[in-house]
Amino acid sequence: MFREFGGPDKLSYEDVAEPKIDEYEVLIRVRACALNHLDIWARGGTRSERIPLPHISGSDISGEVARVGSLVKNHKPGDKVLIAPGISDGTCKYCATGWDSLCESYKIIGYETQGGYAQYVSVPSQNALPIPDNLTHEEAASVPLVFLTAWHMLTTRAHLTAGETVLVWGAGSGVGSAAIQVAKVLGAKVIATAGNDEKLEKARKLGADWTVNHHSQDVPAEVKRVTNGQKANVVFDHIGQATWERSMRSMAPAGRLVNCGVTSGGKAEIDIRYIFVRQFSLMGSYMGGRGELLKVLTFFEDGRLKPVVDSVWPLADAAKAQTRMEKSEHFGKIVLKI
Ligand SMILES: [Zn+2]
Questions:
Q1: Residue 168's closest CA among 225, 70, 236, 245?
Q2: Cα–Cα distance, 258 to 110 (Å, whole number)
Q3: Which of 89, 134, 174, 272 is in the most buried spot, having the most CB atoms within 10 Å?
């Protein structure tokens, strides 16, 4: 947990009281919790007004139901579950149409609530979903946030279809490694970027048809070359400022850029002439609906999607694990075992 915002040294390993549950909540005995960039932004104080202090991070949780509230009907103690990371009211027009993350009362577990870097966490009972039988707790924890995000970006937002080409920036990240797999399930061709040869090799193993080193190679030129001049129909971006201009130059006419985050900064220059002449679409994306997560999980049951676990750490080493993420040393999800 952290009591004030700052670097990894602000994380402390402490005993806290077991969370209380209300009548519609379940208490989860956490077995694994995966890291996200959100954890680092929360600790660093980005949008600090949203973060309850003292704060326990952790949005990607798997474990067992330890206790259920008096009105909970869908779970019993002992159920093996993973946690859908978004909480919404379920009553507004956005929730009713599957746009949970536009709900006015939308909250991300472990970001705007206390999360899973702990032995126990309380969550609404509808957020606890059964774990596909073939997944371990560490694998299950590495699925929800990134696969939900990648699915929502490529299907609901960008409408990526079979035969199209998608450029996936940052294949080593959790969301990038998820996007490669989701794009292949959809029948698309994938060009993936990463910062070193080892990560490029792993991206190819996940299904990327072509890979480009975004530090040493000219990404737009490579995209043009491997597509025989056609360029990418969809650009999958979560980096923002550092990749924006190269994304614009990599897009085919009528191309769609879909973005879910800005790990490199949020300011970019847009030449509007590119947008209208080439009829580009620029799309924002934020999390996704619980229905989409249920859909994604079916692909884990039949093995068409696979969790990508980078490394597993004891909870007490959360600061070291976060440092690995901040240095971009990982490929896939960094997981805490609890
Ligand atoms: Zn709502």
A1: 236
A2: 25
A3: 174
